[in-house]
Design goal:
By secondary structure, this protein is mainly beta. The protein has 4 helices and 14 strands. The chain has one domain.
Length: 256
């Protein structure tokens, strides 16, 4: 029962916290307008979400981005789910800098607590030596790659790239990244259209993006709001056509 619940409710939220590419964000150098737009999108804010499954509330989630005095950005995302006597909390923290239009992670921290086994991971991105350094948690077996992200930073990079579509002409992106187990993988995303959504925060026009998979057994969709710096408005995961989890925006506060 517990194992099924984790897979159905919590594991789909991993992306909430993003080689070879068809349309790589590293393929061409960004122009000054693209860089300026990426900088405008990277602003301090806090967003709160309701976590539901098939219309029933199962918890909450949040995202926060802030800038430290040394110029490093800290991106903190979490999900907190509960059902009956089961609980699961997951937090991802990425420290990064923005170089042009590219998110460059410096450190990635992941922690899972609740019913069942706890888990943690902490790694450092060593650009000078082009290596990954383990700080805590699972061993790291992933090789270094240019443009490497983590399971948390990938969503902010996607947010930037979706916003830059009118300038870049791209509608699909593939990102190499380190997952919560310290393994190298890659995620591909594609813009599939526009939709107007009614969420607790209000009525919002959005750009809809899907994660591209080898099969359609599992589907993951993201909705970003152009009028709110392409903030994530909604995320939904389906398995064999049935909703497994959904995040909907409840509150959004810009800082500074």
């Amino acid at each position: 029962m517990a194992q099924f619940w984790y897979k159905a409710i919590v594991i789909p939220m991993v992306l909430f916290m993003g080689a070879q590419v068809m349309a790589s964000p590293l393929a061409t150098a960004p122009d000054t307008e693209q860089v300026a737009r990426a900088e405008r999108l990277t602003q301090a804010y806090e967003a709160m979400y309701e976590l539901t499954r098939r219309g029933t509330k199962r918890g909450e989630a949040g995202r926060a981005l802030r800038k430290e005095e040394n110029g490093v950005w800290v991106y903190d995302t979490y999900t907190d789910a509960a059902m009956l006597f089961l609980s699961d909390r997951r937090e991802h923290i990425t420290e990064f800098i923005l170089e042009g239009t590219q998110v460059k992670p410096l450190e990635f921290h992941y922690q899972r607590t609740g019913t069942g086994s706890n888990k943690s991971l902490a790694i450092q991105f060593d650009y000078h030596n082009e290596s990954l350094q383990q700080l805590a948690g699972e061993p790291i077996s992933a090789p270094w790659q240019a443009g490497l992200l983590d399971a948390n930073a990938v969503l902010h990079q996607l947010q930037i790239d979706v916003a830059l579509r009118p300038l870049s002409g791209l509608n699909e992106w593939t990102y190499p990244l380190i997952d919560e187990s310290g393994r190298l993988t890659e995620y591909t995303f594609r813009v599939v259209g526009k939709e107007t959504l009614e969420v607790p925060f209000g009525l919002m026009d959005t750009v809809k993006v899907m994660r591209v998979r080898e099969t359609n057994r599992r589907e993951t969709y993201f909705w970003f709001s152009p009028l709110h710096h392409f903030t994530l408005v909604q995320m939904q995961q389906l398995k064999e056509g049935k909703e497994q989890a959904k995040l909907v925006l409840r509150a959004l506060n810009w800082q500074g």
